[in-house]
């Protein structure tokens, strides 16, 4: 039997749990905090493979193993690895209080509406994009993905970071800092979790289902749901297919270039992605911000004309939507195609611009496809009669980076 004990947040490990153990595995601080049986072998967790081999040897000999872990070991913890290697039926899991629960408790906030993301041994950009898109996020940190790195990436985002270190120990410390303040400090190795909060929405609302906000019941909203100028908005039929090809999801970063009303940007944000909208007109910038606020989502807005405005965007987008563009469309599409990790979607009304846009996508190594969208909407006539009203045809092209190129990090 393998007993997995969650500790490290103030609850001591009882000696009865350790009694009879032939092997005790855990981090150095966990092992130093308990009194081990004299006959027990001790393995300090570092690389997992040697520790798992030692566990297998002990279990194979009929011995009892105790694994000490932080907080709740079934929550982004070692239970997954042990269950995969030895089977869940061999595990006796005794969870402690997770570092996420403890951190929120320290600042007096509920966390049923929080999004939890792990940056331990994973790409930091996913955690950053979740923090940008969500008002309440808990980030489990790791080497190279701590408060300083998170703060540097969120420097221009209106968030407060709560850095919780040494939870449950005498050295426990919980500090509120701005992203810029977090970026300027060396936080050491005792950080358990970083909470990223939009203070105006930190309390949240009463929930029925835990986690991020409810996913929208539908998308491709009617144009009337957005403020726009002279019908200069991506029509919902076009938006529906564009969203399907963009595939926005939590952890993604999407650019909406030539945003106009920001309808695509807002819809991507409603589906959980972090979004940056690029718009060249001042009134358009304000319109995008107003539409984002009306739909309760966060959209970063850059005032500038593409492709020049794109050079100031340091992050690499997962997907890009390009609308409008005029004569400069090929250069804009080329700039976006060089940067996108996964997909670029381009909407055009002019037939003459399709070949150049397609060439820009394929030249960047993307596989290109597209359609001409033509639709007719039901429209009432006097006398309780209905006619079909044709909308303007729109070409939609999309370029998809081959999966192998994405995995190898080809997108620059």
Automatic annotation (TrEMBL):
Pathway(s) per entry: Cofactor biosynthesis; adenosylcobalamin biosynthesis
Keywords: Cobalamin biosynthesis, Methyltransferase, S-adenosyl-L-methionine, Transferase
UniProt cross-references to InterPro entries, sorted A to Z: 4pyrrol_Mease, 4pyrrol_Methylase_sf, 4pyrrole_Mease_sub1, 4pyrrole_Mease_sub2, CbiE, Cbl_synth_CobL, Cbl_synth_MTase_CbiT, Cobalamin_biosynth_MTase
Any Pfam family: TP_methylase
Record's keyword annotation contains Transcription regulation: no
SUPFAM superfamilies: S-adenosyl-L-methionine-dependent methyltransferases, Tetrapyrrole methylase
Keyword Protein biosynthesis: no
Occurrences of domain Tetrapyrrole methylase (ranges): 1-182
Domain Methyltransferase: from-to ranges: 254-322
Name of the protein this chain belongs to: Bifunctional cobalt-precorrin-7 (C(5))-methyltransferase/cobalt-precorrin-6B (C(15))-methyltransferase
Provenance organism: Streptomyces indiaensis
